[in-house]
Amino acid sequence: IAALVAACGQKSAPKNDERVLNPDNCDSLEGVSREDLAIREKLAYASESPIKDNQCHNCNLYLPPANGRKCGGCMLFKGPVLPGGYCTYWAPKI
Ligand code: SF4
Q1: Which of 17, 46, 53, 72 is the most exposed place for a label (fewest CB within 10 A)?
Q2: Is the C-beta atom of 82 inside 6 A of ligand 1?
């Protein structure tokens, strides 16, 4: 949890391509570490949000796709994140 809180406090957002790893294949978890997969699972990331108004695209931790790329990312873990996704760490944009 401390790592998650630290990630939230980052002053500059990480570059999205570094977080997504496969920025043009949003279904691929290739190259994502076991640690990041575990965080993804612990936060119950789902590619389709069960809560209409709470989705990755309107979360403060969402990283929109870089120019010319298809997949977004998240500040909390590496790997592709879809705009309509969700996890238990969702936080409104500030
Ligand atoms: Fe990341 Fe979760 Fe926010 Fe989506 S809802 S951007 S997975 S923190």
Answers
A1: 53
A2: no
Q: How far is CA 68 from CA 17, 40, 63, in A?
A: 11, 25, 14
Residue 4 has pLDDT above 50, yes or no: yes
pTM: 0.81
Q: Ligand 1 pocket check: which of 86, 88, 93, 94 to mutate, most ligand atoms within 8 Å of Cβ?
A: 86
Q: Long-range contacts of range 32-38, CB-CB < 8 Å, 24 or more positions apart? A: 32/77, 32/78, 32/79, 33/78, 36/77, 36/78, 36/79, 37/79
